[in-house]
C-alpha cells in the first residue's frame, strides 16, 4: 500500500484544498495517502482488515475498522473523501451510511476510476448532494458537492438472503456471494462428505456458506471462519446464528491472525483485483498453508480451470489431486505429508 493509486494521484492534484479541513476518509482505500495527506485533522474508516493493519502502523493515524462509521467521530468532521469501489451496491450502502451521519453543509469529495462506475455517483446521491465533476485525469473522476440533506439509512434494508440446502444465507453489499451461490462454490460443496470431524479453517468465508454447509452436515466439526471484509464477518455470524450453527468468526488477512493448526483448510480464493487477474492471494494461501495444517491435514480449494494453481500446489506440497472438475472449475486437494 505504499504506491499511490490513480485515485490518490488525482487527490494530490488538489492537496491545497484539504490543508485546513477535518476529514473522514472512507471507501475503497488502496494506499496510505489517507494517513499522509496534510489536513487539520483526519480520521479513516475502513471495512477492510488488511487496510486497518497497514494504516494503524503509521504514527498518529486514527483508523477504525468497523461495518459502520462511528457517529461521534463524524461529528468532528466537515469533509468526506470517499474512494469509489468496484461494487455499486457497496458504494450505495457505504455512502448512505456516511451521509446519514455527517452534518449538513459538509463537503463531499468522491474519487474513483471511470471503469469502476463512478459516473453513477451523481444519480445515486442526487437526493442529498448535488455533485459536480471538478477534475478528470488518470482515467479517474473527482466529484464535489455539499451535503444539503442527511441521507436515509436503514441497515435492515440492505440485508439479502437466499437458501442453500435448507440453510438461510445472510449477506450484505460487497460480500462475495451476495446474489447467491456461485458455480465454483457449489462444486466445492459437492466434495464434502457428512460427519466430517476435526478442526476446519474457512479462509475468505464471505456469507459463511462453506462453513454453514459443513456444520449442517457435520455438527461435530470445529470450524473457524476468517475474512478481511467486516461485512463478510457480520454476514457469516448472522448466517450461523439464524441456522443455529456453531463456528468462530474472526478478522484475518489470510493467516495474519490465525493461530494453531487445522485438519483442513478450505477456500474459494479470489483472483481479481478490480478488473485485473492476480494470483497473489491464492499464492499466499497455498504457500503458507503447511504452517497451519497438522501432518496429514488437507488444503482443499476451488478455482477456475484456467488458473495455474497446480504449479503452486506442486511446488509447496510436492503433489496435488483434482477431486472433481467440470468445464469451468477444478477442486484441488493437497495433503501435508510431514
From TrEMBL:
The keyword Transmembrane helix does not apply. Monomer. It is an enzyme of class 2 (transferase). It catalyses: guanosine(1207) in 16S rRNA + S-adenosyl-L-methionine = N(2)-methylguanosine(1207) in 16S rRNA + S-adenosyl-L-homocysteine + H(+). Coiled coil: none annotated. Residues 8-161 form the Methyltransferase small N-terminal domain. This is Ribosomal RNA small subunit methyltransferase C. Keywords: Cytoplasm, Methyltransferase, rRNA processing, S-adenosyl-L-methionine, Transferase. Its EC number is 2.1.1.172. HAMAP family: 16SrRNA_methyltr_C (MF_01862). Specifically methylates the guanine in position 1207 of 16S rRNA in the 30S particle. GO terms for molecular function: 16S rRNA (guanine(1207)-N(2))-methyltransferase activity; nucleic acid binding. It is found in: Cytoplasm. Belongs to the methyltransferase superfamily. RsmC family. InterPro entries: DNA_methylase_N6_adenine_CS, Mtase_sm_N, rRNA_ssu_MeTfrase_C, RsmC/RlmG, SAM-dependent_MTases_sf, Small_mtfrase_dom. The keyword Ubl conjugation does not apply. One of its GO terms (cellular component) is cytoplasm. Residues 167-333 form the Methyltransferase small domain.
